[in-house]
Structures are given as structure tokens and as C-alpha cells.
Amino acid sequence: MSFFGLDCTRKKEKEVERKIRANDREYNSSFKYATNSIKTSKYNPFTFLPLNLFEQFQRIANAYFLFLLILQVIPAISSLSWFTTVVPLVLVLSVTAAKDAIDDINRHRSDRKVNNRKVNVLISGKLISEKWMNVQVGDIIKLENNQFVTADLLLLSSSEPLNLVYIETAELDGETNLKVKQALTVTGDMGDNLEALAAFNGEVYCEPPNNRLDRFTGTLTFGTQKYSLDNERVLLRGCTLRNTDWCFGLVLFAGPETKLMQNCGKSTFKRTSIDRLMNVLVLFIFGLLALMCIILAVGNGIWENHAGSKFNAFLPRKENTAFSAFLTFWSYIIILNTVVPISLYVSMEVIRLGNSYYINWDRNMYHARTDTPAEARTTTLNEELGQIKYIFSDKTGTLTQNIMTFNKCSINGKSYGDVIDHYSGQRLEITEEMTPVDFSFNRLADPKFFFYDHSLVEAIKLELPDVHAFFRLLALCHTAMAEEKKEGDLVYQAQSPDEGALVTAARNFGFVFCSRSPETVTIEEMGIQRSYELLAILDFNNVRKRMSVIVRNPEGKLSLYCKGADTIIYERLHPSCSELMKVTTEHLNEFAGEGLRTLVLAYKDLDEEYFSEWKQRHHESSVALEDREENLEKLYEEIEKDMMLIGATAIEDKLQDGVAQTIEQLAKAEIKIWVLTGDKQETAENIGYSCNLLREEMNDVFIVAANSPEEVRQEMRDARLKMCPATEQDKFLIPEVILGNTPKVVLDENVNGDYGLVINGHSLAYALESNMELEFLRTACMCKTVICCRVTPLQKAQVVELVKKYKKAVTLAIGDGANDVSMIKAAHIGVGISGQEGMQAVLSSDFSFAQFRFLQRLLLVHGRWSYLRMCKFLRYFFYKNFTFTFVHFWYAFFCGFSAQTVYDEGFITLYNLVYTALPVLGMSLFDQDVNAGWSLEYPQLYVPGQLSQYFSKRAFMMCALHSCYSSLVLFFVPYAATYDTVRDDGKDSADYQSFALITQTCLTVTVCVQLGLDLSYWTVVNHLFVWGSLGMFFILTFTMYTDGLFQLRPSSFAFIGTARNCLNQPNVWLTVALTAILCVLPVVAYRFFYSQISPTINDKVRYKVRQMKEPAPRPRRTRLTRRSTRRSGYAFSHAHGYGDLVTSGRFLRRHAPARSLGLIPTGRSPGFKPTGRSAGYSPVGREQNPKQKVEPTSLQMFRAVKDSSF
Amino acid sequence: MMASSYNAKDEDHHPGSVGSGGPGAVKSKKPDNTAFKQQRLPAWQPILTAGTVLPAFFMIGVIFIPIGIGLLVTSNNIKEFEIDYTGVDMSSPCFSCSQNYSWNSTSVCTCSVPFILDQPFESNVFMYYGLSNFYQNHRRYVKSRDDSQLNGDKSSLLNPSKECEPYRTSDKKPIAPCGAIANSLFNDTLELFYNHPNGSRIAIHLVKTGIAWWTDKHVKFRNPGGNNNNLSIVFHDTSKPVNWRRPVYELDPSDPDNNGFINEDFIVWMRTAALPTFRKLYRIIQKKKDNMTPTLPPGNYSLEVTYNYPVRSFDGRKRMILSTISWMGGKNPFLGIAYITVGSVCFFLGVVLLIIHHKYGNRNNNADIPN
Q1: What is the pTM of this model?
Q2: In Å, what is the CA distance from A1025 to each residue of A267, A716, A1114?
Q3: Architecture of domain A405-654
Q4: Contact criterion met (CB < 8 Å) for B364 and A1093
Q5: For a tag on chain B, would you pick the N or C end, based on fewer CB atoms within 10 A?
Q6: Which residues of A touch B80 (CB under 8 A)?
């Protein structure tokens, strides 16, 4: 077999298993693995032109114009010079090509920068600084602190004890917290011994390149031993080494085969509803074009038969009639091609880009605290923002701040945290004015922590043992890391904010978590430093919903401390606690009612013998290869029982600023908000009330929480019957649509009153089944507010898809976490909150900003304007082009259907590009009917967008009719005015050239006047553009008709002198004025008439603005910080995501989260995994969907900390 | 009607006070506070209110109606006389000529068409010939010319543009001027006689120059070599258009500045008409020097036609038009009528809209906007 053939077959074969031998470039190169140089650029200088042109001509519009160009070079058909098509086409192509080229140059530049980064590579026993691109699979490289990881590496050894390394994965998955990786002991022993490393000849067998960030399987064969490799031994490209002096790694995947690059897949391409409408319209326009051309071709046939044949003496003709008609058809295709405007698409892109920049520039969407401006990550969806009908919102981090504050607690049956008025015994509302507890006794207290109940501090100072135990537990049982930046300034790095809040609370109450090492946790108890030996961490996951630590205190006593969800802990309490349980349950209910997140704390003293025996079994299980997870689980179950209850904590999840007001505003704009949250029902309901989604004055709030499909169906039917007693079964579908294969559309149903719907994940699973989804959708759409709780990421996407499928409405999904990625991708518009929880949501979103409240500005101001501008643009654009084109149609009846143009060819070329391009662009970049303040004052202004009132098929037809009228005026007024007329010196003025000039002057002036009428916001730029274009028309016209240009090319500039001879006639100017007035008169009358008879909301608001003659209203600053008893609520569930506790500490192993984006049913390429996310899990989902099961690898996290220590 | 629009605007009015962390800190990502970027550019925001629309309508009415009246009066004051000499009717003097036409006939057919002017024509009188149903604006016709050749380009003279086909060459010689337009040059000769009441027949002096646009005569059309003498040499290697009786250098042998390509009759013809019915300036009758007597007094006239141009084949008509002119050009009542109509309609619409505004406008505009 030839070398070539071998190469080919290898390329074709998919890599099944990767074999690498360390330090053996020769061996590795036989497999032709990719080198580490990456190439994200598409072109090089030679391929740019052909490739780029090829790509561009794949667009229908460009291909169409190429086709026209071909038609134009056929002499018999060519009714226009080739340059009328070439000039616009070249302009469009070169603008696009320039943009592509700049993009590609930037890509080249970044590629080069990355490829030329230096790294130390171990080559024949020496460390040599090499460029990244020269690194090969199988090389051993040395990374230093704060360096980027060069390629996907197998971690061999590190400077840290236990061969740990810390990495930051911000570039990879957006999470900023550090993660820990650990090398195998056998490789770790090599340390930085270069000789040993150079001699290392381990062989790695591993999976082929893939894009799964959370998974890695492979084996290392070194010496005679085989070691299994998993994700924990691998450093991925894109991470950054932190807090680690150095480490050595073996390159497994390089360059394009790294997981980072494999993940840079294509993102799904979203189109706006206007785009889709445009596609339909363009088809319609093609139809219209064909129709016109057929009519004219037939006309030509008839004319040739009658008049043309007799006219032969003057105009001989070779073809027969039919052939002449056929040629005429194509000639008119060329002439009338301006109905399908090439510049339309380019202009639309420019407008969208401009409006995207406005979003980026908006200071009112800039969040100062996090220094985050809003960002339009997709620049092609702006106008869709003005048409949103449904918003799907995540809760945690989106509606809420995801900042947890320790608010209340219950210790040994006593509740702390409320401020009681001494005289009346009433509970007081906590306000800013109250004096918080003074923590000055504790030098390590966090100054940002506030607590208002002084009795708890007193209890601490009284040294009540329960209170001490309570806080000791909080200080010990967690996975946070402490960092002492300055003396006395502790910073905790906790994976979940809940945990951070608890540890901080303990810190302020005198139980300061100081530091930890693999074996110890050091805390300062009321000023005395004590070191606890940490024997095991029984980590949290969403099945266990609890975590425990086993520690030995300095006195040598063994204890197990546990915190977790109440239901779970209650099952595992010692029977002697039953009294306390009752009181605590009351407190828990109270806390939950106030919308606080609660956790129950318990402890257990352990017997030394029992524990050592347990430890032994634990060690065995954790090294076992089979059923490791199950056995561990059993072991955990076994030891976490008969615990003693200490108390409960309550944490407040704070709402973001302005959430309630924003929701109120959006509701006024008739946007429906559905909250999709992973939280429990009570919690979700609570948050619904506190952010105005659910209101006390609602007629009813239906709660669907049933356990069987029948019950769910029945509950929904009941709800519907109550909302609309007259509801009939099948009236909700558009009948004719049912018959066809097109998707059904569910119409909105009228409901008397306001209703809310709360549905839990379990019922939602049934409701989303195909036989019930319509029922669910109907019910949900009849309600003002829908809250889905306990939903999985998959269900979030399913709900969005459901609405997309059956409702002709634009949807928006907003979220901040990885569990929102699926719905963000599913919705028409995805908005990411650039919050505290990593960037996955932002990375897959179309727009991002820091605060939920910016949504109202994004939609009500930017969205509305963008939509308005795009619609105005389209209406005007079609108007001007149709008007321009239809004149040719009328002229055909007077020139023997000969495809003679009305205008000069120069004018045809420049009309769209120069004379009318800028004014309309200026309109679509600056126009605003009312300013931002008024837009927010009257959210109803948003409604026309939802109904697509500004641009629809009907509006398009109106445009076409309007153009038809205008073109008739534009043709017949000059026709009549010049008919048999002469100039004021008796000379000819009804000649073709003068007529062309008069008509095109009339046209230019008319479309400018029409634009002026449409333009409601005349900035300096608009003035410049409008007057400039008009001036440009005259300047260029005179220029093109000069002697000089004629002398250069007599045949191209045959219009010499026409402008001079024609435009000095008063007659001509009277004609121009007459056509302009005649064209706009009906429009003005019509608009004024309707503004009087039935003014739209826009008319009313603008009228009001005019009357008030005032600047925009100062936005009211009613910052309602609700302090009522109804507040954001999470009951009972310490809602950690699967990954939460696991990753933060140095002891923790990175574990794999459950399958995530594979959840999206549409099969999009999976992006980042939803790791590190609280409130995103769903135990329900586990039961419903076997795919949701936590994968085996993820259970490895349950292993206790240091296997070897047992 | 409370609008509780929440807005975090306070953050904006103290640039640099938040987020930037003081001078020297990392540059804040806060967007610039410029009117452009914040979309607060000062702007004129016109809206259609009763206060602007209704006066505008009345204003247009007030302006347009007088203009229209002025135009109409002007147009009506223009004297125009038109006579069709095609000879379709048997009774027509030119009937026989129209019957036996041929491009190449060497025999000259003349006919005399008598007519009466009722009114005196004062000042300069312009004489036009008019053709109808003649498609000078047909695409193939319009482009069948070579402007380079007409501009005196020597190479184009001998190698005319392909657009001229099939009138590009004849007898293997290039045609000058080439193309269908030139080939179909109007070649009737019109002469005007005034039959004085005293019986004498006075030939009216017809000026044949000054009928073409200055730019056409002096820029667009030039004889090859720029020399208007010895045209026969210049055009030696060319052949005359097939329908022509004389070569181009004999169009007006008497006047070298009106011969060849710069012959004004030719230039006027070459300026193709926009519509199938058109008139072209043929001759000018200059006003009498004394200003006392009209240029054309009322009375009997006869039009002597040398009938060469065949139009019967395509149902065409030939007319002779005599017309005076005004500041707005020739007679055309359209603009006047249109202005009066538009003005009246505006006025009427203004009244209607005023009534509507009174009846509905206040109700709707003063209604509160529900919030």
C-alpha cells in the first residue's frame, strides 16, 4: 500500500483509541495526531478571494444578482448596462468581504499569538523553551504558576503536596473558583526530577478526541503496572494554573483535538421573525416580478404583432414575435430586479449592528458594582426584542441576587433572628435604621455581616453548649477554603453562597474557620485556636441532600457533624430528639413561610472502635472497582443515623434590585412571564408573591401537583373551567391549519380575571407528554403568571419549545446558570445574566447584562426601538424600491414593451447606493417615536410589536399599494406635463432624456419627502443625510451630464447637457412639486385621519409628550425593598447543585455533573456542562428520566478525603 | 395612572464616582456618556397634529390654486395651431403623396395644405412637426446610435458601434451616421406661405438654425476632424444611411455650420422622444423688427409639403404645429388644471379633516392613556 493510500485510510478511519508513549516523538508521530498549533482562521491570502466569493455567492441574494449579471451580458436581453448590477454587487461583496477579512485577520492574529506562546518542553532530558505550536502529543511539558495550560495534559507531578494542582477554568466554563487536580502517585513521585521525567516511558491508552469536558477515561501503563486515568488527572487547555509553582504534564491531545477546541462548535443560528417573514415576502416578490414580466412579455408579443411589425421600416427585427416576447421577459427581469433589493440585506445587517452597539453603550444597563455593561452578543436579533410575548425566567441569580445572608436560626428549640419589640412583644420589621449586633468582641468578624437579634450573641457569651455546638458545626462542616489575605482579613471561597453565608455567620459569632489542611480544620472558638482532625467528608449531592464531616477534636473525641435538608435529616435522627423535632419543625415552617432557605443541623458522637472498623470498610469500598458508589452510599447511610438534632438555619435569598417593578412593567407591556425554577413549590410560590408575579388580588392561583397523568389532566381541566366556564374543547385551534401539515397554532383564549398557575416538575413531566401538552399550554396561556418549580434543565427547554411550537409568539429566556443554557438556546432570544455563577449562560446567550431589571430597558426601550426602526426601514425600503420599479412597468405601455428604462442608467446604479441609502439608514439608526423615559412610562407602547403591527404581510401589501399609487403619479404627472410641451425657448423638452431626468428628479424628491414624513426624530445626522442625499443627487446628476465626462466616454454619458437644459425650466420644478405633494398628500390625510378617529397608543403618547413640552419624566425612584413577611422563599432545600460542594476545597475532587446539555432534545451540540450551579437539580428529574442519572464518575466524590490515611 | 418605572439612572450622573474605583484604577467598562451613544441627540420631533396638518392643507390650497390659475391662463394665452397633413382622408391634399411613398423614390411628391389662422401670432412663432404612433422610445431604436461617431470620433466613424446594427454598414462601408435613429431621419420639407388678402403669396422666412440645444449643437455633435469644410472628404469612406437620399455632408450644403453631423434638423431628430407621440422643433419664424405687426397675421396660409416621409404603414400621423411660447414653454393646460385640482382637493380635505378633528380629535387626544 502506498504511503498516500495509507494516509488516506487513516484519515477516513475514525480514531478509536489513542495510544501515546511519553517522550517518544517517533512512535507518536506514526499516528499523525494533530500538533498543537491551532487554526481558527478560514482563509489565507491566496484562498481568501475564491473561498470568500464562493461563500458569498451561496447566499440567495448574491447568487440572484450574479444570475442577473449573466443575463445582462447577453446582448439581445440586456436592457441595462452591466454596471448597473456590477456596481452594487461589487460594493455589497466588498463590504462583506472586508468584514470577513478583518475578522479573519483578527483570527490569524490571535492564532499566531496563541501559537507563539512559549512553554518549557522536556526534550532529551533538558527543558527547552518552545513555541506552543511545536508541542507534540507525547511531549512532557512544564507549566509554571499563572501559565495557561498548553494542551490537554495528563498531570504527572506538581510542586504541591499530594501532587495537587489548582486550576482556574474561567476560559473553559466561566467558573472563577479554583479547582483541584491530582496526579497519580506513581508519576507524582518523579517530582521535578528531569532525569526521571526524561526516562519516563509510560504508555497511555485513552479515548479519542471528544468535546466532553467532564469526562476522561484512559489507562496509563508504566513499568508493569496499569493505572486507570480519569478526568481528575487531566488538565485541559484553556485553564490557568494557580497557586501552584510548577507542574509537569504529558500532552494527550494537542491543538484542534483538545477538548476546548472540540467544543468550539457552531452555535445555532437564530433568525428573527422578521427574517422569516422576509423570506416569505421575497418569494412573494419573486412571484410579483415574474407576474409583471409575464404581463409585459405578453404585451410585447401583442405589440410586436400589431405595431412592431408595421414599424419594421424604421426598426427592423429579426426575431419572431414569440421569441421577442421571451427575450422581453428576461429583459424586464433585469430592469425590474430592483424589487428584490440587493442592498436590503446589507442594510438590515448594518441597522442591527448599529442597534446592537446602542445596547452595548447604554449606561442605564451598566452595572457599576460588577463593572459590567450590557452586551449584545448576537447582533442579528435586535428587532425581535421588540416583539417578545413570553419571558421564561430562571429564579436563582436572575430574579434573586444569589447572595445569601444568614438571617435566622433555631437552636435547641429557640428561634433567633427576629427583633421583638420590648413593650408590645410584636415582631418588628427589620429596617436599615436598626442597630445591628455589635461584633466588635470578635476581631475576626466580617464587617459586612449584619444581624439584628441581640439575644443570640448573649447566648454565645453565656456559653450555652447547644449554641456553641451549633456554630462549631457550621465552622467545621463545609467545604469552603479560607484565605488570609491580610492579617485578620479572612476570605472564604465557598462553592455555594449558602455555605459561604453559614461559615461567615459562624465566624461572626465567634467560631472562626481559619484554615484547613488535608488532615485538619483549624477554627478559632471564642478566641481560642483549636485544630480538629478531619477524618472524612461525606459530601453533598442532590440525592443525599446532606453533607457530613467526621472530625476528631483536640481532646480526641470523634464526632460526626451533619447538615442537610430537613426531611432527610429527620429520618436519621435519634428517637430521643422527637420533642425538639416538633419545635424545630414549627420554626422551619415559619422560616419557610418567610421565604428563607433552611437547613437542619445534627451531630453524632462516634465510637472509636466502630469508626475504625467503618473506616476500614470505607477504604475497601473506595478502592474497589465494582459497585464502588453503591457500597459507599450504603456506608454513608450506615454512619449517618441516630444523629442528635441541634437546630436549623435560615438563609435569606435576596431579590435583585427592581425585580418587582420590572415585572410589573413587563406585565403592563402584556408580556407573560413564566418562572422556571428548580426550587420547591413553596419557595417558588413565595418568590412569585414577592416579585409581584403572583398577587393577593388574583382571582385564583391554581396549583397543579399531582402524581398521575389523569390527575394532572383533571386539575388542568378544572382550572380551565374555572377561568372560562364556556370553554369548549376544540375551538382553540385554527381550523384550516389543523388540516394541513403545518404546525398547529393555539390561539389565545379570553379569560375573565387574573389567574396564576403553579405546576411542579412531577406534574410538568406528565403535562409535557405529547398527549397532554396542548392541554397544558392552553391552561398555562390562560393564566397571567405561570410558575414551574422543580424543573430540570431539559424541562425548561421543553416548556420553551412547547410555547414556540404552538404559539405564534416570540419567546425570551433569561437565566444565569448552566441549567438555563438549554432554555436560553431554545428560546428565540436568550439573555444571560452575567452574575456570580460562571459564564455558561452568558456564553450561550444572545444578550447579556448584570441585572434582571435591565430587561425592561432592553425590551421596552432598545427592543421597541429596534423593532420600530427595522419595520420603518423595511416599509420605507420596499416603498422606495417598488415606486422606483413600478414606473418602469407603466412606461412599458408607452414604449412598445421594449424594456426601455425610464431612468438614466447612472441613476439606476446610484439610486439605492447613494441617493436613498443614507437617509433611510439614518432613520433606522436614530429614529425614536418617543424617548426612553416615555417608553418606560408607557409600557403599552410595546404591544404593537408583539402583534407584529408595524410590519406584516398586510403592511407590506399597503406598501406595495402605496408604491403603486406613487409610481402612477410619478409616471403620469411628468407624462402629462411634458406631453407635447416645449421649453421656454421653443426647443424640445419632451425628449427621452429630459423625461428621464424629470421623472428621476420627481422620484428622488418624492421619496425624500416621504422619508421626511416617516422620520419622527430629526437629529443633525438625519438632516445631514436627507439634505446631503438630495444635494448629492443634483451634484452627481450635473456631474454625470457634464461635457468632460461625455468626452471621456460618449456612449456612457450620453445625457450630456440634459440637466442644464431641463432643470432651468420652471415647468419642471412645478412638476416636481406637484408630484411630491400628490404622492404624500393621501398619506398625510390618511395618517391624520386615523390619528383623529382611532389614535394608536403611539399617537396618544406622542400627543401627550407634545402637549407637555417637557423632557422625559424623571423615572420614579421607588425602590421598594420589600420587607413584608412574604419574601423570597426556599423551604427546606439547601439547593446545591450536584457540583457545588465538591469543587471548592482542595480536598475535593472534581466530579462529573449529571448529563446536561445532551438533554436538549433537538440535538444541539453540547456546550459547557452545567457544573457549579445551585438550585438547578431536580430529584424529580432523576426519577422521570433515566438519562438524568448521575453518572458513575460523579459518585467518586463521595470518597473520603484521603484514602491513604485510612 | 401611576407608572412606577424603575430606572437605575442615579448611577449615571456622577461619572467616575462609581465603578471606576477612583483615578488610576483599572479603566471602567462604563459606556461613555455622550448624547450619541445614549441616543439622546437633540432632535426635532415633528408629529402630525391638527395644529400642523390643517394649516398645511389650507396653505397648499391657498398657494396651489393661484399658481394653477396663473398656469392655466398662461397656457390659454399661448396661441397654437395644429394641422394634420398625413393625408389619410381622400379629401386631404396629401392623400396621393401618402399613397405612393417610397424611401428611395427619386420623384418628388409635393402637396399644399391650406389653412386659416384666426388670430394673430405675435412674437417669435415656432414651427413644429409632430409625429404620432412613432416609437422613438423603443429600446432597440433608442440605442441604435453611436454617440462617439456623432461626436466626431474618427475611429468610430469608420468602425461604428455594434449597437447600430443592422444600419452599421452598407456596401461594406461604414454608415455615417449609423443606426436606426439616423436612418429614419424625418425628411419632409415644410414651407409656409401667407396668402395675402391682396392675392399675393408671400413666403414666410423660416429660420432653420437655433432649433437644437446648444449643448447638442456644440458639444455632443461634432463633425469628424472638427472641420466643417470639406466634409465630403471626411466622409469619403463612409456610406449614407440606406434611407437617405443625400449623404450626411449634403444635409445643408449652403451653411457649413449646419452641415454634416451638426445639421440642426438632424440633431433635433437624434434627440429621441420619450413618448410615441411627440413634436419636434422644425423652424423658427422670427418676429418682425418693428414689433407693430404680428409675426403671423390672421388670414389664409398654405403649407407646402415635400412629402417624403412614410408614416401610413404604422398608422402614424404627421402634423405641423405653429405655436407661440411663454415663460412656461408651450401650450399645456395640464399643470394649470392639476394645480387647481390639487389645491381645491387640499382645501376640501382641510375642511373635512377640520370637522373630523372637531368631532373626534379632542375626545381621543384628551383621553387619558390607561396605565
Answers
A1: 0.80
A2: 37, 57, 32
A3: 3-Layer(aba) Sandwich (3.40)
A4: yes
A5: N
A6: none
